[in-house]
């Protein structure tokens, strides 16, 4: 059974908990923010709840439900734009995400929480104080698991901050366009270049700006991305002989910030922020003990000290921290770590596994050998615990040719057998690169012994005897590579790196380019591109490392992990397993959940993992097609107006032709008017203590006159801006119309039980928005003058020429009569329609409304929604057709068509866009008739 039980696009609805008999059970609620402290040495575990985060979650949810009170207009546009994709997903029939894909809920919650704290109305923050780190500038941390999309959240932060700073330049306390991003090394720094607002950046790839005008405005951002190493003070030998003495804070700031030094009130974003914390003065931890826990005390100190110096001279307005594992020493005892106190949102590894954002790790739960005497677990669960392993692998100056402990060799034989099966399955499935086995070990001598074990043929499986596909990562060389420095000479190691390149099937010119690199650059290039087609690391199948591989390393084809070191903290476990959690594919099942992918783990005592059997190899990455605008086909461009709403400019007299008003049926089964509650404890309800809520006992709240005025008030809010008479006159007419409707036979409740007058009024009250929507659709004036479109001021004209290039793995075929290169086949009907457009002589050009941005706003269920018509078709007679293809009809689809009809009438009335019309096809055969009907002579 898969551990994936939630969709990543909405708030998690359930989570796994430890059940009876060693099994997991589902609890139907969101997992509380918490973390587990697991003592692998003593085999104990306890859970620490993040009370502040849980409180903030509730406040942010209430703030969101209230419509984000307190935010700026710019922020509202951004939030509505970002949430719009999720709304479209929820409205879709199959609940399967379509491009542009919705943002993950954890991404939206992370950015919303930051906005809530900075902009939200104070009423939603009362009683909440976010602790600091003891320094002079504010820090806010988003805890997000590997694979949850932290880089996208950083892009959202920048978009939010910069656009607001440019729009409201006086609000320097909240916003800044000067962004300083600090990364833990060159690997991450290079990956974060997508945050520079240039062509092809994340702002374009994820369509972060709601309009092209705001996207262009974002180009004024000042974004600087640097390694934490740039925060190091200059060494004496690097100082000029003229400027003797310690580098001043001002000089330090100018050197580090460069172009950013001209700004004050800077925003800092710390990526992998668990590297940046203040060491508690009472901390009882040595550098060696910290290293065992994956902590670099020097790095943490220098990182923070550097930012402090910048704050002295330029002011750090606020610092946003992002990390999957924001742990730091508590100072209480040498082995204890705790999460940052300033965490404001949490989406941990367990949440990511349950949402399918990452591979599911599977650990060893039993084997047919004797278990560990103390824990009664399989020895393969935490290999390094076994004395025969730890004593042997911990020997200094062990030679590479010395055999590995028997238990380790047995583990490699077992893991290797599974790796072979995965390799075979991947080849059959069409993968170009092999699955990767990753080993993380305790010291360089152990790494050399493991490399020798595979390369000299000691490993049981011959497929693993592949020196040109095996990489031992020299931690000293990698460390220098991350610093951009040169390591000591090692000709043998350099030759092995070049042999890996030579064994690939890359073109000779590309091979030579790689071999011309310094060994530090070559190692980083190989390790950063494991499994990536056309790169130096494309054929690697075995990676052996001592240090944790660089954060940001995202080899998606890691399927097996071997841990051969001590694991004294959950931080280490998550960091090691995190190197193999990136997914290969994001395909979904029939329920809209991601299909499970797995990474099998030996020797890493992870506390959450799947214990069942089965699981197929991740599917091969499907070929993607580039969808782009073809400038040479500019004659096929289609342009349209971007309309925010259509206003009916009416004369004072409102009328309704009641003979044409269809009957509105209110379904009692869809509207509860009573509810029964029972006290609950531990997930069980006491059915002997039921209490009821019954609206029928509150008749004063549902008087008919009150319902009439309530409906009229809602209708008045819709019409008052387009009504030319006095507001009092409008209100009086609406009261009359609503009263007539409620007393007419146009409103029907198909239930004798609910024909009781009180129950009828209650049903009307609970469906008042539907009533208003139904009536207003048929309200007209005796002499309608016109429908007036209200254009989007920032982006009034849409065009196929404005579509940004995007990619898809869906079936496509080249489009010849379109400004767009390809048509993406989301359904067979659409392909059929496109074939007709390509062959019918009357069609000049067409475009599928995919990534074009044409949207029609309509009202449904009392709220304003939007939908995207399927096709735009331009005929030789100058007419433009908006074509909708529907398999079935529904009241909601009818509401969409009504809004589209209004849209068509409005733009034809406004003029300037030629003659437009709209049609809907419910059967494929109808498309031919529609083309024939509208391709005739244009109406005048």
Structural summary, described in words:
Strands 7-6-8-9-5-12 form a six-stranded parallel beta sheet, with helices on both faces. The protein has a six-stranded parallel beta sheet with strand order 13-18-17-14-16-15. 33% of the residues lie in helices and 19% in strands. The termini are far apart. 40% of the residues are buried. Mean pLDDT is 82; it is low at 236-242, 331-336, 608-615 and 678-691. Helix 19 links the parallel strand 17 and strand 18 (598-602). It is an alpha/beta fold and 940 residues long. It is globular.
Quantity of strands, as a count: 40
Put simply, the count of helices is 26
How is the largest sheet built, in terms of strand order?
7-6-8-9-5-12
Low-confidence stretches: 236-242, 331-336, 608-615, 678-691
Oligomer classification: single chain
The geometry reads as globular
Strand content: 15-25%
Summarize the helices and strands and which ones pair or pack.
Elements: E1 15-18, E2 24-27, E3 34-39, E4 44-49, H1 51-65, H2 73-91, H3 105-119, E5 139-144, H4 150-167, E6 178-183, H5 186-191, H6 202-205, H7 212-218, E7 222-227, H8 249-257, E8 266-271, H9 287-292, H10 297-314, E9 316-323, E10 327-329, E11 337-339, E12 343-347, H11 349-355, E13 360-363, H12 387-393, H13 406-429, E14 436-441, H14 444-455, E15 470-473, H15 475-483, H16 491-502, H17 508-515, H18 519-528, E16 542-545, E17 558-564, H19 570-578, E18 598-602, E19 625-627, E20 639-641, E21 643-649, E22 654-656, E23 664-665, E24 674-677, E25 680-681, E26 684-685, E27 691-694, H20 704-719, H21 727-742, E28 747-748, H22 757-766, H23 768-776, E29 779-781, E30 786-791, E31 797-799, E32 806-808, E33 812-814, E34 822-824, H24 828-839, E35 843-848, E36 856-860, E37 863-867, E38 871-875, E39 880-885, H25 891-910, E40 916-921, H26 925-934
């Amino acid at each position: 059974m898969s551990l994936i039980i939630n969709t990543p696009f909405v708030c998690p609805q359930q989570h796994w908990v430890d059940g009876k008999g060693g099994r997991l059970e589902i609890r139907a609620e969101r997992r509380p923010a918490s973390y587990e402290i697991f003592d692998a040495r003593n085999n104990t575990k306890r859970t620490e709840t993040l009370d502040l985060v849980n409180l903030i979650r509730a406040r942010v949810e209430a703030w969101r439900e209230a419509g984000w009170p307190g935010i700026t207009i710019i922020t509202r546009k951004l939030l509505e734009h970002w949430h719009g994709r999720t709304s479209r997903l929820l409205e879709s029939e199959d609940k399967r995400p379509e491009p542009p894909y919705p943002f993950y809920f954890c991404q939206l919650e992370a950015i919303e929480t930051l906005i809530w704290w900075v902009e939200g109305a104070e009423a939603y923050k009362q009683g909440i104080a976010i602790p600091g780190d003891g320094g002079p500038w504010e820090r806010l941390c988003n805890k997000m698991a590997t694979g949850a999309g932290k880089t996208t959240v950083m892009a959202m932060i920048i978009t939010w901050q910069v656009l607001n700073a440019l729009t409201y330049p006086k609000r320097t306390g909240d916003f800044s366009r000067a962004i300083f991003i600090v990364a833990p090394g060159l690997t991450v720094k290079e990956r974060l270049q997508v945050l520079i607002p240039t062509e092809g950046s994340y702002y374009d790839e994820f369509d972060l700006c709601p309009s092209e005008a705001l996207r262009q405005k974002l180009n004024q951002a000042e974004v600087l991305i640097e390694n934490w190493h740039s925060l190091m003070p200059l060494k004496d030998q690097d100082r000029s002989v003229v400027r003797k003495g310690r580098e001043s804070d001002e000089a330090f700031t100018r050197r580090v910030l460069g172009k950013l030094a001209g700004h004050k009130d800077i925003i800092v974003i710390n990526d992998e922020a668990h590297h940046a914390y203040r060491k508690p003065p009472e901390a009882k931890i040595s550098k060696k003990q910290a290293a065992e826990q994956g902590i670099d005390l020097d790095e943490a100190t220098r990182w923070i000290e550097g930012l402090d110096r910048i704050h002295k001279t330029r002011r750090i307005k606020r610092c946003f921290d992002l990390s999957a594992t924001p742990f730091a020493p508590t100072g209480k005892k040498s082995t204890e770590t705790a999460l940052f106190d300033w965490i404001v949102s949490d989406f941990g590894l367990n949440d990511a596994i349950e949402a399918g954002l990452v591979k599911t790790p599977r650990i060893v739960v039993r084997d047919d050998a004797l278990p560990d005497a103390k824990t009664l677990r399989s020895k393969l669960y935490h290999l390094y615990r076994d004395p025969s392993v730890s004593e042997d692998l911990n020997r200094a100056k062990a030679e590479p040719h010395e055999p590995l402990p028997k238990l380790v060799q047995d583990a490699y034989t077992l893991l290797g057998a599974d790796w072979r099966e995965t390799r075979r399955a991947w080849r059959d499935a069409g993968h170009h690169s092999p699955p990767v086995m990753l080993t993380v070990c305790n010291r360089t001598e152990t790494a050399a012994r493991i490399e020798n074990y595979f390369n000299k043929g000691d490993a049981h499986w011959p497929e693993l005897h592949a020196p040109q596909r095996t990489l031992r990562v020299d931690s000293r060389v990698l460390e220098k590579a991350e610093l951009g420095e040169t390591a000591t000479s090692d000709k043998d190691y350099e030759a092995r790196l070049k042999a890996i390149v030579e064994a690939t099937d890359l073109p000779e010119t590309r091979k030579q380019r790689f071999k011309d690199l310094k060994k530090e650059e070559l190692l980083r290039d190989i390790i950063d591109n494991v499994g990536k087609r056309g790169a130096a690391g494309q054929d690697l199948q075995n990676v052996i490392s001592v240090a944790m591989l660089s954060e940001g390393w995202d080899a998606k084809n890691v399927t097996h992990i071997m841990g051969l070191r001590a694991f004294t903290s959950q931080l280490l476990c998550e960091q090691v397993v995190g190197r193999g959690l990136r997914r290969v594919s994001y395909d979904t099942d029939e329920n809209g959940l991601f299909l499970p992918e797995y990474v099998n783990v030996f020797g890493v005592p992870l506390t959450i993992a799947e214990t069942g059997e089965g699981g197929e190899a991740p599917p091969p990455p499907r070929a993607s097609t580039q969808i782009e605008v073809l400038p040479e086909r500019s004659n096929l461009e289609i342009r349209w107006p971007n309309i925010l709403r259509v206003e009916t400019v009416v004369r004072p007299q409102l009328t309704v032709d009641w003979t044409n008003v269809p009957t509105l049926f209110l379904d009692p089964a869809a509207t509860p008017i009573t509810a029964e509650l029972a006290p609950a404890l531990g997930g069980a309800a006491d059915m002997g203590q039921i209490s009821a809520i019954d609206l029928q006992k509150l008749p004063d709240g549902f008087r008919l006159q009150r319902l009439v005025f309530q409906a009229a008030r809602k209708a008045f809010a819709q019409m008052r801006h387009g009504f030319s008479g006095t507001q009092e006159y409008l209100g009086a007419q609406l009261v009359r119309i609503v009263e007539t409707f409620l007393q007419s036979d146009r409103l029907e409740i198909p239930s004798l039980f609910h024909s009781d007058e009180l129950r009828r009024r209650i049903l009307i009250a609970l469906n008042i928005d539907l009533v208003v929507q139904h009536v207003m659709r048929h309200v007209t004036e005796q002499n309608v003058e016109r429908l007036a479109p209200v254009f989007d001021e920032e982006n009034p004209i849409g065009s196929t020429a404005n579509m940004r290039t995007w990619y898809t793995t869906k079936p496509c075929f080249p489009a010849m009569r379109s400004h767009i290169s390809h048509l993406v086949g989301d359904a067979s009907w659409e392909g059929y329609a496109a074939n007709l457009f390509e062959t019918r002589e009357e069609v000049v050009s067409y475009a599928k409304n995919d990534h074009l941005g044409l949207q029609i706003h309509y009202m449904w269920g009392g709220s304003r929604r939007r939908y995207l018509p399927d096709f735009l078709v331009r005929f030789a007679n100058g007419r433009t057709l908006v074509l909708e293809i529907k398999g079935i009809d529904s009241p909601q689809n009818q509401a969409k068509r009504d809004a589209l009809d209004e849209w068509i009438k409005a733009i034809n009335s406004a003029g300037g866009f030629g003659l437009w019309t709209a049609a809907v096809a419910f059967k494929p055969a109808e498309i031919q008739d529609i083309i024939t009907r509208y391709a005739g002579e244009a109406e005048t």
